[in-house]
Amino acid sequence: MATENILMGMVKAGADRQECHERLRVLSQEAGRAVKEGGGVNDMLERLAADEYFLPVREGLAEIVDPVKFIGRCPEQVTRFVEGEVWPALEGYREHLNTSAPTLNG
Fold it and tell me: Closest Cα to residue 40, out of 51, 50, 30?
């Protein structure tokens, strides 16, 4: 999903969609190969930042790939599940649990 946002940012800056897609594909395969074959870390963002072609989106990469933009309603759904399902299921075991239960979202 993040690469789609990078692609859209590049096209908005005037890049050719097909060329950009191909460059993203190649960099992604290289990064994947480094992880799978070399046991390295996924350095896709570093590869993008180092490639002059992606200069138009370089400064905004951190914002483009901000994980918060990809989790949707997950925090609300987890809170609802824990409060509606988990805590009630644990109610019968209260005497065995730490009474200072952690809070969600802070």
Answer: 30
d(CA 73, CA 77): 6
Of 9, 46, 5, 48, which Cα lies nearest the Cα of 26? 48
**Contact (CB, 8 A) for 15 and 56:** yes
User: Whole-angstrom Cα distance, residue 51 to residue 57?
Assistant: 11
How far are the Cα atoms of 57, 85, 89, 90 from residue 7, in angstroms, in the given order?
Answer: 9, 40, 45, 46
The pLDDT of residue 91: 86
Q: Which residues contact 2 (CB under 8 A, 6 or more apart)?
A: 64, 65, 70
* pLDDT value, residue 1: 77
| pLDDT at 23 > cutoff 70 | yes
Whether residue 89 is predicted with pLDDT greater than 80 in this model: the reply is yes
